[in-house]
Amino acid sequence: MTIKQVSEIYNISQDTLRYYEKVGMIPTVNRNKSGIRDYTEQDLDWVQTAICMRSAGLPVDVLVEYLKLYKQGDETFEQRLQLLKNQYDKLLKQREQINQTLQKLDYKISRYEIAVKTGKLSWE
Amino acid sequence: MTIKQVSEIYNISQDTLRYYEKVGMIPTVNRNKSGIRDYTEQDLDWVQTAICMRSAGLPVDVLVEYLKLYKQGDETFEQRLQLLKNQYDKLLKQREQINQTLQKLDYKISRYEIAVKTGKLSWE
DNA sequence: ACTTGACTTGGAGTGCACTCCAACTATTAA
DNA sequence: TTAATAGTTGGAGTGCACTCCAAGTCAAGT
């Protein structure tokens, strides 16, 4: 599968795909005789995971570290587990932060809905 | 209240507080005769809200726009309402993204917990 | 009187995550 | 055969959100 197809499937730029590979967030993708990337199913798994993790806010360097450990083999199970748990905890905190902000926004929105009707913003 | 106290209460740098004011995310804080910021209760409300919104990921320019509308007065209730609703929707999506990633991480973590025990990563 | 320390400003610098660019190569279509 | 299209690389540039810095002011302590 070409980089173009992958970029269309996952709605991500080709530049970003090349960038993820360059920095080591995903393993090197095999090239055909003319040097063009040919993504395998496994490559797609890595791409998918990378996109998922990044869109939740996991830092690039953490994902690079994960792949580095992965490439080192079975000796790094514990380190990978630790890394994943760390990120899990951080995401829980981030979700909590979002929940707080949603509450605050909800409160403000309800006040503005009244304000739009009455022309006045109450108890400010 | 001085900038030092505010920065300690909210655990944010003085530089960041000055930055928020400079770009217009919070209203201008009054200075005393010697030109030093003296934060009022209202200022603290703005600071608190700014920090809350930022830590959930709302962009600076959106918060700047909100303050700009706020300063324009009652004519902008609807625009402010719309802005807040937009951000609310974005946060819901972001939370959904985090939930998906948490699921994925949870799955990986459970596999690694077994791997650490058995020395093998199953069905890979 | 002088030093110390906390503050002020405008503006430069940093780190992150892309995003774009120039120069090049290979394949296909006219 | 030539032009268009789609890919390649290394490296430069961008946008965001701070973060740091230099040069200065002011109030309090010795």
Tell me about the largest β-sheet of chain A.
none
Work out the oligomeric state of the chains in this entry. Answer: homodimer
Average pLDDT figure of chain A = 96
Give me the strand/helix succession of chain A: HHHHH
The radius of gyration computed from the alpha-carbon positions of chain A, rounded to a whole number of angstroms, is 21 Å
Short description:
Two copies of one chain form a homodimer. Chain A has 124 residues and is mostly helical. The first copy, chain A, has helices spanning 3-10, 14-23, 41-55, 60-72, 77-118.
Give a written overview of the molecule.
2 copies of one chain form a homodimer. With 124 residues, chain A is mainly α. The first copy, chain A, has 2 domains: 1-59, Multidrug-efflux Transporter Regulator, Chain: A, Domain 2 (Orthogonal Bundle); 73-124. Helix content of chain A is 71%, strand content 0%. Chain A binds chain B through residues 49, 52-53, 55-58, 74, 77-78, 80-81, 84-85, 87-88, 91-92, 94-95, 97-102, 104-106, 108-109, 112-113, 115-116, 119-121, and chain B through 49, 52-53, 55-58, 74, 77-78, 80-81, 84-85, 87-88, 91-92, 94-95, 97-102, 104-106, 108-109, 112-113, 115-116, 119-121. The structure holds a DNA duplex (30 and 30 nucleotides).
Task: Kindly list the characteristics that best describe this protein.
homodimer; 124 residues; mainly alpha; Multidrug-efflux Transporter Regulator, Chain: A, Domain 2; 5 helices; DNA-binding
